[in-house]
Design brief:
The chain contains eleven helices and no strands. It is an all-alpha fold.
Length: about 210
């Protein structure tokens, strides 16, 4: 199990309290160090958008405050993990970068507003909105994956929007060609008969004859 997976098993209140106060005795020591590194990576990335330079600064801070030496590639991994963790459990892909660029465009809009450049402010605000919208759409599509369906014995075809028909009507429609698709299939006659039997069409026709009698 990775460090990120272990953190995800912690109660959100424990994580929030630790990030706010730096205290969290209920969290294992190694995870506290890891969480602190993620927090520093996120803080550094706010002002240093170059991942490699952000990682270099993170290495220095970890060495100075935690007295731990890590390699540059490990520091780079921490930066990406921080982007994952603080952007709602999404792999470092389009959603994360849409959010990052939205932040950048919003800063540009603020600077343009201070300078009175309304044209640049308007364009930057529109671009930020586009990035936010795309990130939200990606998040929504993620949440709709893996649909859970609950089946109840009380559910009837009528409740699901299907029209109820009696056996006689179904048999009549079959004679009129409503279900001719089975007969038109390019398969052996024996296979067609099996499909008709599975669909209970022959049984329905017999039922209609009984009803008519």
């Amino acid at each position: 199990m990775t460090q990120i997976e272990k953190i995800q098993e912690l109660h959100p209140d424990l994580i929030a309290s630790f990030l706010a106060t730096g205290k969290g005795e209920a969290i294992p020591a190694d995870l506290r160090l890891f969480l602190q590194q993620l927090q520093w990576a996120a803080e550094t990335f706010e002002t240093e958008r170059s991942v490699s330079r952000c990682a270099a600064k993170l290495r220095q801070r970890i060495a100075a405050e935690q007295h731990v030496s890590i390699e540059q590639r490990t520091a780079v991994a921490r930066v990406y993990e921080a982007l994952n963790f603080f952007h709602v459990d999404q792999s470092v892909g389009i959603k994360v970068w849409e959010s990052v660029y939205a932040d950048q465009f919003e800063k540009i809009a603020m600077l343009a507003a201070v300078k009175g450049d309304l044209k640049t402010q308007s364009k930057a605000t529109e671009r930020a909105l586009e990035c936010r919208r795309r990130a939200a759409e990606i998040a929504d599509s993620d949440r709709t994956l893996g649909i859970t369906q609950l089946i109840s014995p009380d559910v009837t075809p009528g409740l699901l929007g299907f029209e109820t028909q009696d056996l006689k009507t179904i048999a009549r429609k079959n004679r009129e060609g409503a279900y001719v698709i089975i007969q038109s299939l390019p398969i052996e006659s024996s296979e067609k008969k099996r499909l008709l039997t599975d669909a209970k069409i022959e049984e329905l026709e017999s039922m209609e004859e009984i009803i008519n009698e």
